[in-house]
Amino acid sequence: MKTLTEFIIEEQAAFPNASGDLTRLLNDIGIAAKFVNREINRAGLTNIMGYNDEVNVQGEAQKKLDVYANEQFIGALRSGGECCAIASEENEKIIAFENEKSQSGKYVVAIDPLDGSSNIESNVSIGTVFSVYKRISKSGKGTTTDLLQKGTDLIAAGYIIYGSSTMLVYTTGRGVNGFTLDPSVGLFIRSHPNMKYPDSGTIYSINESNYIYFPDAIQKYIQYCHFDDPTTNRPYITRYIGSMVADFHRNLIKGGIFLYPGTIKNPSGKLRLLYECNPMAYIAEQAGGKASHGFGRVLEIEPKDIHQRSPFFAGPTFMVEKIEEFMQKYSPDFGKK
Ligand code: AHG
Ligand code: MN
Ligand code: MN
Prior knowledge:
CATH topology of the largest domain: Fructose-1,6-Bisphosphatase, Chain A, domain 1
Oligomer: single chain
Number of helices: 10
Structural class: alpha+beta
Bound molecules: 2,5-anhydro-1,6-di-O-phosphono-D-glucitol, manganese (II) ion
Order of helices and strands: HHHHEEHEEHEEEEEHEHEHEEH
Shape: globular
CATH class of the largest domain: Alpha Beta
């Protein structure tokens, strides 16, 4: 049995020059995740306990869970001191820490503190997604440029899924490992060593209500998924939760592709490159799969804005390659100016 903390320490010890900073940073994220998990688990009780009013029983203003999660991760990273700046979905601009310790931090983090937040009230799995980069600036406050790095420069990435059990899944480029929270002792225990996509996959996950707005290639791909062909295990199975973390996680375990394409209305799709697409793309590749924007690797996109969006397709290699083949064949100019 191995805990998350033990595993991170061991993994980082393999790097001869490792200072332990990344170990501490990942550990901080794990600790914040436990607080967020506790709050999520209590969410269903908020109505009966009166927490959902504007002001709760302690006389404090009640926070929405995504704001709470944002504050937990920012707080943990600020006090940890290894990270000098954060880009979060919840903040328009980067948060560059003012305190001296953080300003000497070597890393920057991009984070979606709560993914799938529209699913909270229906008790459906939600998540957190994070990316870790080395800062580019040498010292002082972290800058936006520090965060505008390509996914190929990622040092670590991961997600937490708050589901029927809570798991933290992460990679530092040496494979993907999953840890399940044992709530009775408050420890993440390694439960999914060296996670890989299965060789075969029969699930596709897409919001099909956008069908009429999809480019030809995606419409044709959906028809391809529906087609009866036992030699390729089709028709495929539709599964769509509407929480990317949960959809991605299930597909990683069971074998399936997650799709959030661009549409005629929104050619770049919905998902954010820095803290949704890139971290998941890194994990997908480390799990032996692929992640594409339709015409190539998500991780190679040069970011220009911390909140920019990208079409996103992630899953087993053969499934993502099929999407790229369709995009090239049927919609070669889609989304290109
Ligand atoms: P968030 O809750 O962080 O805003 O993210 C929601 C995202 C993602 O989790 C999910 O895959 C997608 O929105 C669902 O979008 P649709 O409702 O358009 O399918
Ligand atoms: Mn999200
Ligand atoms: Mn979010």
